[in-house]
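Notes from hallway chat w/ T.B., transcribed later so I don't forget. T.B. wanted the structure written out for a chain they're using in a teaching module, and asked if we could keep both sequence and structure tokens in one place. Agreed to drop them here.
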Amino acid sequence: MSFDLLIIGGGIHGAGIARDAAGRGLSVLLVEQDSLAAHTSSASSKLVHGGLRYLEYFKLRLVRESLTERESLLAIAPHLVRRQRFVLPYRGRLRPAWAVRIGLFLYDRLGRNSTHEGSARIRFADSPYGAPLQTRLRTGFVYSDCTTDDSRLVILNAKDAAERGADIRVRHRLLRATRHGGEWRAEIRDEATGATVTETARAIVNAAGPWVAEVVAGCHAAGARTAVRLVKGSHIVVPKLYEGTQAYALQHTDRRLVFVIPYQEDFTLIGTTDVPWTGAPEACGIEPAEVEYLCEVVNRCFERQVSPADVAWSFAGIRALQDDGATRASAVTRDYVLALDAVDGRAPLLSVIGGKLTTYRQLAELALARLEPFLGRLPGSWTATAPLPGGDIPGGDVGGLAAELQRRWPYLGERQSRRLARAYGTRATKFLEGARSPADLGEAFGGGMTAREVDYLVREEWARTPHDICWLHSKTGLWATPADRQRLEDYLGHA
């Protein structure tokens, strides 16, 4: 079959471009060598944010665009994107108070149409936000951003793309692609069977993230003239550090911000690091020094101390960033480049370098604008207002949806109803319908995961392995025991 667009990479940028393109009537093939969101796009700090620290590098356009996108994503995915209040303790030796005030003032103003509560200065003695902090920290600032489920954001973009006609193939690898008569011929291998097929496409989008340079080489293209710099970011998850829904943005001694965020009700997420990376992207993992680094910043600010022994889960991912010559990895720009390689105005290869989770939708629009001269005139943009699957929640009231799930299926309980509402939105009823009792949901695999839900993930969301189900499509792996995981593996093996 011949496609208009072949997309390499099933992270947030590949899935976002696939959704946008399919919705404009293009025939789309997306191939991902692993699972959707298996690497960088599931290893973020789970934030939809403007990027407060980018103001220090005068990235006003990026911050403004990010804050605008924050509002769009909150509207189209209310089940995945949630408002979050952040507390920034003041540590004068790192940043003067006037600089923080100016930064927050700009942050509020750049988000001109923001529906979020503005920033303010607070005294911790007068605020419950100060309760978890050491008493030497007396004042700070509060501001607003959003959190999200990064991997589900990817998966639901791919889901919407598929429902609009896109062909999504997980565990398929691009071996090579060559230009023939104004088209691409791409050799693609099914990693499960080893079988190879050749597909043709009018254009290729290289959204392979850390593998972007490999794809350029496999296409025998000149590729992006922009150099790529790989930076590793790592996070740890520990048992819940404090009561309350607020998150914290802590200033480390190297002036980097490290986030401390309530996570999955029972845990706290801490991250990220910024470490230069020169190895194979798939080989990355958190290092003991990174764990110590993250524990250290918490222990400098919180009354409750943490150690590596407290870590319940950790993850690391590689960000492929535009190399702007910055001396420190943390200073490398998070802006993006769309590098176009075309021969005689035909068979373009568009490589995505850099970018943020928050701005993926805007990046997709710009990518299609760059490709429009090669693909013909396209319908206008549409993704800013169209809900993602499950996001058609009246008034965006996820709490109301959770209450409705509990009313219809009382045996779920409050906690499980809330998890399903946040993960699937209105789509949760697809696998709950007809289940009159817990027994109707089938075997349990820990964390509330049941056979009904597993079957749905395999059938509708390309889940293949226990890791897919427990960590990418859900976070039930935080509660699953080894026996739970073994039962799940056995179930999938017989499914």
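Follow-up for T.B.: The chain has a mean pLDDT of 93. Might be a good example for the class.
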